[in-house]
Specification:
Elements lengths: L1 E8 L5 H9 L11 E7 L7 E8 L2 H8 L2 H6 L15 E6 L4
Antiparallel strand pairs: 1-3, 1-4, 2-3
């Protein structure tokens, strides 16, 4: 299993609409080969921070999705007025060691 974790922090007061956009996401990734699941998290101690964890069969499946037109299309639901804290966007990759 391969996990991609993307994090960012919202700088203006759009976190409620950003979270709503994730609740109503178009589910474009769901039928992508190798995709297992997506979790969108927000730490209770920093509700302006968003974590997206996508679970994949393997890294190649993720890379294929990330380079696809559908990936770009899937992000169009994020409110246009959303501003992020500079430098807060990070992407990290994980391999599952044990469960």
């Amino acid at each position: 299993m391969f996990i991609a974790l993307s994090t960012f922090t919202i700088a203006n007061d759009t976190e409620a609409s950003v979270k709503e956009a994730f609740r109503n996401r178009p589910h474009m990734v769901d039928s992508t080969p190798g995709f297992q699941k997506l979790q969108v998290l927000s730490p209770q101690d920093n509700p302006n921070e968003i974590w997206l964890m996508t679970y994949w069969d393997d890294e190649e499946s993720f890379k294929t999705w990330y380079k696809s037109h559908q990936y770009q299309e899937s992000h169009k639901g994020i409110p246009k007025d959303t501003k992020l804290v500079p430098g807060s966007t990070k992407v990290r990759y994980f391999s599952v060691v044990g469960e």
